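Team,

Forwarding the record for the chain on the shared tracking sheet. I've put the sequence and predicted structure together so nobody has to dig through attachments.
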Amino acid sequence: MYSFAVEKRGVVITVNPEAGLHNGVQTLRQLMVHQDGKTTVAVCKITDDPAFQIRGFMHDGLRNLKSIDQLKMQIDEISAIRMCRSLW
């Protein structure tokens, strides 16, 4: 669980477990807008409390062969959408 508040003076991320910090930072990354050499984030308040404690992804290695680098990229993408924390 995390709470996320963007105000004119800055960003405040309040977390409960360790994964909350990761998820809050991922949300911040998704809200950032890069334009004309400046980075901005819209003023907002978000509280995220996932319905399920564990989120999963299954990869069928027998019928879907991928290199280790491709699997690492998939894990990073899953991490970016807050399904898990990246291990890399």
